[in-house]
């Protein structure tokens, strides 16, 4: 298996490619069906954010180990316009694309760990981790 | 490497003499100090080098001697060990004695002696063999409820035995390296035994945890299309997750149209618990079934309303019998009394 | 790629057998509305048994399909949503409270009948 392949996102199809690679990795690490869906969906949301706002960027999905815990880390990186108010973007119901407003707060709920760095004009970096239950 | 820079002292003295004759006074004075310095440096280097060489030689010797000594005196050491063990009172002596006997039969002392080998492969093999014996014989001690400290204790006796031998007394230089090596060995052994204990405890804990989880939220296919899940105990996020998944997969398996969740046995219904229940109910709706929550006590109703939890899409009832009646009605059935 | 839409009496039947991507979802919305308009169907069952993931975008498209169909006088029932998909949607904060659901195609058609014929 390729080590931490990062997927370049610049069209709608790359969203599908990114989430499929996430699902494959989650499956190979032994994540349950529900967590596989959570990880895949989180990747889909992040990849779509890149596609919609930054036009292009990359998604990196890799396994993480901590003690005897196993998890999956998703990194989403772009050099797009960034987010003006990160706190606000994490509030439910806030979305600039007119979706259901699930975007970032949704990803935060789907994953166990979530962090975001963004500044206007400089792009956005989102890191999220999901740990396997026992 | 260090030896290359060493000038033979005679040559140095000769050089000093020559320079003194042929060079003007002032120049010589300056040069003189530099020469002294380089002689000093050479001498210092030589001492360190020789010392290191000596230590290295003695370490090899010590290792070889220890390995040989243990191998040649295995029977004697075993005998002494047994005597010392019987002198230490223990409430589990029988099981521990069996454990140690198994370990010695597996060649514990031979492996210990090979730990002193200067061949890396042999050392690794020794460690590996001891780990294998531990895997085999530590678990019975665990099952006999023997504290890990008592399992480890007999091994300390060996160290004392080895340190008190005539051989060591004759070579005081061996004491420090022997203690050092023995400590390395025992640290490894003790850590390993501890690991076996802690892993088994952890597994037991996890097994019990999942047993409790299953017991405290069983899924009961009550009637055709009706499934009941009574929840007992406290609900945290992990448990809520498991309960929800069980509910959803179970409802699909039983082709349930109605799922009754009984929260009579849930000790405390706070905001978090209420949210989990609402989320579970919403998830049940999505898979195509209906959720009825029963066992709502007055204080739970008060909590939910004062916390502003939106229960719109939930059918909630106070008792199981009411819930069952509603569930039957939704699936086109009813309870009829027969005189 | 296009999702086939079948006609069954007064009802339409859609079984989504592929992983939905954005374009397919939008195309499907278009096709279904056209079909409802053309056939005058009063009910649609959309079976999602094979769908393993629905993100907020696809959820919005599907939610819109329901509202638009209702504007055309057609009821929509979703069937076969998988537990994993259901839990993920709830985590995303999409509860689809006003959407009709059933466990499988058969129950879905039954539900439509109940809704439309009482």
Automatic annotation (TrEMBL), chain A:
Keyword field: Kinase, Transferase
GO MF annotation terms: kinase activity
Pfam families the record matches: HATPase_c
Coiled-coil parts of chain: none
Start and end residues of each Histidine kinase/HSP90-like ATPase domain: 34-134
Name of this chain's protein: Serine/threonine-protein kinase RsbT
Automatic annotation (TrEMBL), chain C:
InterPro entries in the record: Bact_StressResp_Reg, STAS_dom, STAS_dom_sf
Gene3D superfamilies, A to Z: STAS domain
Domain named STAS: residues: 1-112
Listed Pfam families: STAS (PF01740)
Protein name: RsbT antagonist protein RsbS
Annotated source species: Aneurinibacillus danicus
